[in-house]
Amino acid sequence: RFNVCYIDNLLTVYQRGMKVNKFFKKLILRFPQLENIADNIEHAYEILKTAYESGNTVFICGNGGSASDSEHIAGELMKGFILPRKAEVEMRQRLKDMYGEEGVYMGERLQQGLRTISLNGHPALSSAFSNDVDASMVFAQQLFVMGRSGDVLLALSTSGNSDNVVKCVQLAKAADIKTIAMTGRNGGRCGGLTDCLLNMPEDETYLVQELHLPVYHCLCMMIEDYFYGE
Questions:
Q1: Rounded distance, CA 17 to CA 38, Å?
Q2: What pLDDT does 9 receive?
Q3: 87 neighbors 123 (Cβ within 8 angstroms)
Q4: Model pLDDT, residue 186
Q5: pTM to 2 decimals?
Q6: In angstroms, rounded to a whole number, what is the distance separating the alpha carbons of residues 215 and 156?
Q7: Contact at 8 Å (CB) between 185 and 4?
């Protein structure tokens, strides 16, 4: 049975500042069934943070509902999520100097973001490659072209066995790209390949997806606070 004392002990291990503690604590308090993958959530955070600190890119992919999650995560990281992310003063001033009031308008509305690409977001390329070459390789093809050593792939598959996702994880490992997989309980094929497995303690697709969302929201908030918080 869930024990609140466990949370207090857990938070001493995952001490990363008050804001991070708040987000992590809220996640575990709301979803105590995630306590068994708490270590892995922290590991995923460290992988993402390290990549962004080094100026690398995070790529995301998934099918169906997980494709929507892929776009959702990219949206949270590429613009303000729960914190303001004003453009740098230097860029706002440059825009003002170059374009006057129009530049001021632009500078006030631009937001800082973290380099994140959803591999589900290129429909012309994806449909052409799927038709002309091999649909199971469409994510791997994109990562092969755009990915670099030190980047991260966040792969979502409720079963962990989606062929196009598995092949993308395989390509990532060959290209020295760190991998995080979000799956259901047993992890599937992705579970044996990935550097960090976030396997939700559910088996039904919709139940797995219902836990994916709060986990990736928590990761996005932790990352945002690290880079843009006070």
A1: 17
A2: 47
A3: no
A4: 95
A5: 0.90
A6: 12
A7: no
* Radius of gyration in angstroms for the set of CA atoms belonging to the chain, rounded to a whole number: 19
Residue 89, CB-side half-sphere exposure with 13 Å CA sphere: 0
Element containing residue 196 per DSSP (H, E): strand 196-199
Task: Kindly tell me if the per-residue pLDDT of 184 is higher than 60.
Answer: yes
Residue 208 near residue 224, CB atoms below 8 Å: no
DSSP letters of 46-85? HHHHHHHHTT--EEEE-STHHHHHHHHHHHHHHS-SSS--
User: If we measure between CA atoms, which residue out of 2, 45, 37 comes closest to residue 152?
Assistant: 45
Residue 162 has which token pair? Answer: 């989606």
At 22 the pLDDT is 87
Q: Report the length, in residues, of the chain.
A: 230
8 Å CB contact between 136 and 61: no
Mean pLDDT of 139-152: 98
Question: What totals of helices (H) and strands (E) does the chain contain, helices first?
Answer: 11, 5
- For residue 215, which of 227, 203, 228, 199 has the smallest C-alpha distance? 199
Query: Residue 66 is encoded by which pair of tokens?
Result: 């997980």
What is the DSSP secondary structure assignment for residue 111, as one 8-state letter? B
Nearest-angstrom CA–CA distance, 194 and 179: 5
Measured at the alpha carbon of residue 189, what is the angle toward residues 68 and 119, in degrees to the nearest 5?
30
- 158 φ, ψ (degrees, to nearest 5): -65, -35
Q: What are phi and psi of 133, to 5 degrees?
A: -125, -80
Residue 122 vs residue 10, higher pLDDT: 122
CA–CA distance, 185 with 113 (Å, rounded to integer): 32
- State the pLDDT at residue 21: 66
